[in-house]
Request: fold
Amino acid sequence: MKLKQFLQNVSSFVIGNAMRKVMGGVLLGLMVLLFASHLGYAQEAKWLNEASAETNIDQPASYLDEALDEAAVPVPAQSQLWLSQINAARSRGRQCGSTYYQPAQPVTWNTRLYAAANRHSKDMATHNFLSHTGSDGSSPAGRIRQAGYTPSSWGENIAAGYSNISAVVSAWLKSPGHCANIMNPRFRHIGAAGATNLQARYRYYWTLVLASPRQ
Reply:
């Protein structure tokens, strides 16, 4: 009987230790899993916080045909900054990706192109998106024509997240396609506008429209 009791005690001790190890392992695994889950959430939250301060520029859109001249129109005060930035870039030769552009003639301001640019920047800011296609399905060419300008050639640059004109023009000049639109000698007129919505992902939205008229 003593031997039987001794064996039962040993068995209980071994099983108890084994169970404690198993349960300890399960508990440790759950702690690791919970920590990993918490870490993953923290990383996701950090990405979401950074997203509100992101900058982004979409691919440029353009169409080229015969370039023609049109009379210049009066220039509002803020538009002078756009013109000075764009024409300063065009005044010197520039490498846009793999293509070198010679200095180009200065562009002039066009209120109809401004209307097309302003419409699209406000649309992007209001509806929280970045695309050449408007929330109503409009295209760059469609917006230009609906503003009363009939283009023979046109280009559109858009961007988001940049807080001022100088910053967004600088970013465009570092992007081959956007740089090419700015330096293209066939464009004669521009209109540009920004719009702000602090509740939208990028907060600041920009559109630059370049074109030459068809006559």
Q: What stands out?
A: Residues 10-55, 65-73 have pLDDT under 50 and may be disordered. The helical segments are 2-51, 77-90, 111-127, 140-146, 165-173, 176-183. The chain is about 50% helix and 20% strand. The longest strand covers residues 151-160.
